[in-house]
Amino acid sequence: MDRKVRKINKNDEPIIQLVDVVKEFEDKTVLDNVNLSIEKGEFITLLGPSGSGKTTILRIIGGFEWVTRGEVKFFGKDIKDLAPHKRDVSTIFQDYALFPHLNVENNIKYGLRLKRIPKDDIPKSFYNKLKVQQKKWTKKAQTEMKNLDKTMDQYEKLLENDKLSKKKRDKYQSWIDDLDFKYSYWENYKDLKTEDYEKRYLTRRITEKEMDNDVKEIMKLVGLEGNEKKNVNFLSGGMKQRVALARSLVIEPEILLLDEPLSALDAKIREKMQILLRDIQQKLKLTFIFVTHDRNEALQLSDRIAVIRDGKVEQFTTPKELYDYPVNKWVANFIGDSNFFDATFVKGGKVKFMNKTFDTIHEEFEPGERLDALIRPEDVMITRVKSRAKLIGEIVKSTYGGSYYNYDVQVKDKIIYVETSSKHNVGKEVYLDWDIDSIHLMKKDLKLEAEEKESKIENE
Ligand SMILES: Nc1ncnc2c1ncn2[C@@H]1O[C@H](COP(=O)(O)OP(=O)(O)OP(=O)(O)O)[C@@H](O)[C@H]1O
Ligand SMILES: [Mg+2]
Asked: Taking every annotated instance into account, which residue ranges of this chain make up the domain ABC transporter (predicted)?
């Protein structure tokens, strides 16, 4: 579809930027200063346990939920005041949300009725008029924003007073939050007015025939050809999800929000849909923000993953970085099965755990500092040479994983997980070795330690 409506707002700023976003439901803080900066064309995944705030972040970007505080920027402009349909965003939900009374084709066509494209012969004067108007709108918005700034400064000064009662403080803060929403309106004022103008003078609805073409093209893209007239109620889960995808894509959004769209599908269809999603995202150069709590799905699909924990972004980086350099034990645990050791930094290049001192590439910690050491199962080698053994243990369990074996190796009172292609028998004594860069050292995760202590006390 190359008849794309000219889109406003384009520049080099991130396509989405959340700045210090706070979301409170009644007294509960659900998002606690979330910062995320997403570039155009990225496949971003929000990964985290149930209740961590993934859906809330998505709903805030989609405009279905208001922030309590903070900014939601789209190409640099705060859009937190904009209604969902004014945002260049489309959402796909886990339960498809198709219209049961419409067939496949008409489900896809649904959103297209609102779509507009440029008129064919537009007098040049219309564009000139727009330019003049835009100057006026910009000026008006600037004046309004300046006034708001002044008022906000006054409230902020009031807040600086330490002796304020909590009630007063909350009141001033809520005034500031309100003003911030008004500010967002004026930030987008020129664009909104421009859109109105375009609607009136520069664009038109698309015709029934153009609609048919768009639908045909998109059906081909998502692999739905031949199913035009089918009743959506009788489609399989995978096919339903394709219809939902087509319906979202056909209106050509800049950003697609996907909230666990594949979690209801069985493994095989799920894999197929993963490939389809990634293909389409790259082909159309769209920005995808995808929610899952399946770490493998996240690692396979994403350009970058934001790990969400208790309403905070714990780490935001590429799958490889996340796997190789998790910021703490909690993230490491969430991303892959691992061996963790309570460790103490000895000095640059030396670390102690399991009562032994090992070489490490890490230099950055303080002597005596308590750390978490991580070694991935696939980095542990079973060697024949006893003199190279870093640890000696006994295989107590073995499972075959297709092309490799997983072993549980008992070393003193600890089980060490080993993944390797060589076959060994349960009961055998083995010598464990690893490369110097296989030890990942991380600062102790105090929050997790406290939680672990608590659950230990509860279990006693
Ligand atoms: N409308 C609401 N009112 C009150 N609390 C809410 C509301 N919506 C969400 N919450 C709370 O906010 C927290 C985050 O919810 P959210 O749905 O964003 O989590 P999630 O990461 O998407 O979880 P899941 O993986 O289970 O979908 C939860 O504790 C939830 O109970
Ligand atoms: Mg959710």
From this structure: 16-335
- Ligand 1 contacts (CB < 6 A) are 25, 30, 48, 50-56, 293
Give the residue whose CA is nearest to atom 30 of ligand 1: 51
Two structure tokens written together for 200: 């009136």
Spatial distance between the Cα atoms of 295 and 84, rounded to a whole number of angstroms: 29
Average pLDDT, the chain: 90
Pair of tokens at residue 441: 């050292």
Angstrom distance (rounded) from CA 27 to CA 334: 28
Measured from the CA of 53, which atom of ligand 1 is nearest? 18
Output the pLDDT for position 1.
Answer: 42
- Residue 381's φ and ψ, nearest 5 degrees, are -110, 150
Mutate which of 18, 46, 56 for ligand 1 pocket (most atoms within 8 A of beta carbon) = 56
Query: How close is the Cα of 19 to the center of ligand 1, in Å?
Result: 20
Question: Hey, which CATH number is domain 338-459, 3.40.50.10680, 2.40.50.140, 3.40.50.20, 3.40.50.300?
Answer: 2.40.50.140
Place of tokens 């080993």: 418
Label the pairing between strands 287-292 and 43-47. Answer: parallel
Averaged pLDDT, 18-27: 94
Element (H, E) at 226: none
pLDDT number for residue 247 = 92
Cα separation, 342 vs 444, whole angstroms:
9
* Ligand 1: residue whose CA is nearest its atom 3: 25
Residue nearest ligand 1's atom 24 by CA: 50
Handedness of CA 382, 387, 388, 394 (dihedral sign): positive
Give CA–CA dist 134/369, Å, rounded: 60
pLDDT beyond 60 at 2: no
d(C-alpha 391, C-alpha 380), whole Å: 10
pLDDT at residue 83, as a whole number: 86
